């Protein structure tokens, strides 16, 4: 097995190494410019186009085999993204995700071989109460991933901040465009605070079999 890995070309990626170090030490990582401004704009336009086509639906809680819509717990609307039927912006997104996944498996032996991602829109006055990104009947989610697609003039008073509940503190993360948050799905409870201005993102999970 070691000879197989030695045969595969490998170069260290400083950004990915920082993400790994962050997750190892604090169970989460925040990257301000994982996607460029142009990439964020392309993904935002893709999200808004599909929203105009009325393809979004109410979100739910529970696994895909046991989904229950509960507005009192979460209020976002979502659209699952099919990696194999994508536009140019989504192809770029999945290329970056797959590159990160491959790096994590090569360096950390995480065994990630599945993923699922969706667009998410939080309308005004919606939120998502404190929760874990794992289920009693499905614990395959290993890493949670959020990429914010809000406009460049987004301000803290627009709301919708992500709160990560750490052991001794609460980490507040504002959803500025291009920012990516990656955290351990089975370890960190989190919530989305009330939104004052519609909040746009891509959310998803890197999963084991």
TrEMBL record:
Domain annotation Fe2OG dioxygenase: ranges: 106-208
Database matches in SMART domains: P4Hc (SM00702)
Classification via Pfam families: 2OG-FeII_Oxy_3
Domain of life from the UniProt record: Bacteria
InterPro entries: HIF_prolyl_hydroxylases, Oxoglu/Fe-dep_dioxygenase_dom, Pro_4_hyd_alph, Pro_4_hyd_alph_FE2OG_OXY
UniProtKB keywords: Dioxygenase, Iron, Metal-binding, Oxidoreductase, Vitamin C
Oxidoreductase found in the keyword field: yes
Oxidoreductase is among the record's keywords: yes
Names of the cofactor(s): L-ascorbate
Name by which UniProt lists this protein: 2OG-Fe(II) oxygenase
């Amino acid at each position: 097995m070691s000879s197989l890995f030695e045969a595969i070309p490998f170069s260290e990626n400083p950004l990915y190494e920082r993400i790994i170090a962050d997750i190892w030490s604090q169970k989460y990582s925040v990257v301000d410019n994982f996607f460029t401004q142009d990439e964020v704009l392309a993904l935002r336009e893709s999200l808004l186009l599909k929203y105009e086509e009325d393809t979004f639906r109410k979100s739910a809680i529970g696994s895909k085999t046991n989904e229950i819509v509960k507005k009192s717990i979460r209020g976002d609307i979502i659209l699952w993204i099919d990696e194999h039927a994508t536009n140019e912006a989504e192809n770029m997104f999945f290329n970056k995700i797959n590159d990160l996944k491959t790096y994590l498996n090569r360096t950390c032996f995480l065994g990630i071989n599945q993923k699922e991602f969706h667009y998410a829109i939080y309308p005004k006055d919606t939120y998502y109460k404190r929760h874990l990104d794992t289920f009693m009947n499905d614990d395959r989610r290993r890493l949670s991933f959020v990429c914010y697609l809000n406009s460049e003039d987004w301000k803290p008073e627009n709301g919708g901040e992500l709160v990560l509940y750490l052991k001794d503190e609460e980490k507040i993360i504002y959803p500025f465009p291009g920012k990516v948050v990656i955290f351990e799905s089975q370890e960190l409870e989190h919530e989305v605070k009330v939104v004052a201005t519609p909040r746009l993102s891509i959310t998803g999970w890197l999963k084991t079999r």
